Amino acid sequence: MPSKRKLDLPPAEIYKVAKLAANGSRHIGVEEEDNNLEGSPNPPPEDDNGDYGPSAPPENDDGDDEEGRFFGGGITEQEKEVLDFMDSNQQSAVIDATPETINASWLKKTALSFEKRISRNAELRAKFESDPSKFIDSEADLDSAIKSLSILSDHPDLYPTFAKLGSAASLVSLLAHENTDIAINAVEILSELTDQDVSASESDWSALVNSCLEADLLGLLASNFSRLDESNESDREGVYHALSLLENLCSSPPICDRVGSDPALIQYLLSRIAVPEPQITQNKQYSAEILAILVSSSLPNRSHLTSLNAVDTLLQQIAPYRKRDPDKSFSYCVEFIRNSFECLSSLVSFPEGKAAFVEAEGVELCLIILKDGGPKITKPSSLRLLDHACAFSREVACKIVNGGGLKTLFTMFMKNKTSVGATTEHLIGIFGSMLRFLPGDSPERIRSLAKFVERGYEKLTRLVQFRREYAARLEIIDKSIEEERRALDREEQEMMEDEFFSRRLDAGLFCLQTIDVVLAWLIAEDDGARDKIRELLADRDEDFGVLRKTIQEQIEGIDEGSEEGRETKEMLSTLAKFLV
Known about the structure:
GO cellular component, one term: spliceosomal complex
Subcellular location: Nucleus
Main location: nucleus
Protein name: Catenin-beta-like protein
Number of helices: 28
Number of strands: 0
Low-confidence stretches: 11-41, 43-72, 92-97
Pfam families: CTNNBL
Strand content: under 5%
Shape: elongated
């Protein structure tokens, strides 16, 4: 995971922090440009230890004057006694200032004080509703009590006790406080306590968070989003802390699903990213990031967001950049666009999302971005999005062909001179999906096959070239894995299977398999392509057997527990019969 983001401070706030750190005071400091001004006292000598002013009297100074009023240091005997008394009190105060032990006993006292201040403030607010001066002091005390809870983040082992005492629920209840500053401070503390940087165990973190959720944390967060005005700096920071808290909650998959199923929260996030802004702000970008997190690994969240028209909303945010790149000088703009694409790529990975993508003309938008001379930053994300949308979708595959996408995609493919990189992987993925899902004998399929065989079969030559590059990299990894296997017993080999498979994927196993499926389709459907592929493979003393071996490996790895798996196995088994 990336490191925790920090709230951006405006220049004035940064200056204030710097001055406080440097001077230790809120008073404005004045620099002396000339230390030798006429009439000013001379500076102390450099070898002086800084002990200026009148010296203290010696321990046994008997140098009082005739009337016995003054000692050598210029103070009376009575004043000396007073100073000695004050010194002794200060020393005892330092001894008593030993930091208090933070434990369960301390927490109980702190929680009791916290509850009393909540009750006192509520009582005075109810009694003097029309006279804020009567309850302003209690509000300040409550604010201090909230901020004092921040220390708990250094002692997460106390979270269960904090929750059991009811203080976590009380803290959450302050999100409904009439004073938005109190509510914002409560949100900020909750964000600190649940932060991923806090070294809390899963059980301690869950004890706190579950208590907060039971106190209607999500509902109160949604209501706060609706009442905070981001034109106000304090409210803008409040929205940031609330989004930060949501991100923390989403680190738990079950709670992530719960957040994603909350209509008010999702509606807010979608409406927030749709707010027009001259330059993308931090909170708009953060909202897009939260949406991307919500749908990254949760099917229920994807379904819920799609039902709320999230696909169309996100495409509208991308559309202004279909022919131009976002301004790189504004980092939030680039991040916002990437997170919007990330969210869309997750949404179009299931049927409802694909249908919404087609209806909102997402295919056409991606093809515009992918055209030669289009924006460089959004182009890779658009290609990835189109690859995800085209997988297992006849409708998207047809849209690509009818939208003029064949020329765009094959031009990109032929300009790409190497198999290394995501561009080649996504293009091959799209070709594989089109050959599998375009209807047989349909105009779209015939046009696609024609593209592969035109211009002297140049696309087939490039495909075989890429296949060799992937196969060479995979061969090196396979040899390395085989050497490791010989040093392991059977049980150890089984434990390492996932690791070995991951290494093979990194070396290009999936791309090699996809290329071989594409070549198998072309062999099965076009005699000219069949002869050309046989000729290209023969250049390296290879034949269709290398393709059949890869496809057979895919067949053996398919899980037949789903309808999709069974259909894939049937398709691959049929293709394998043509590779003889």
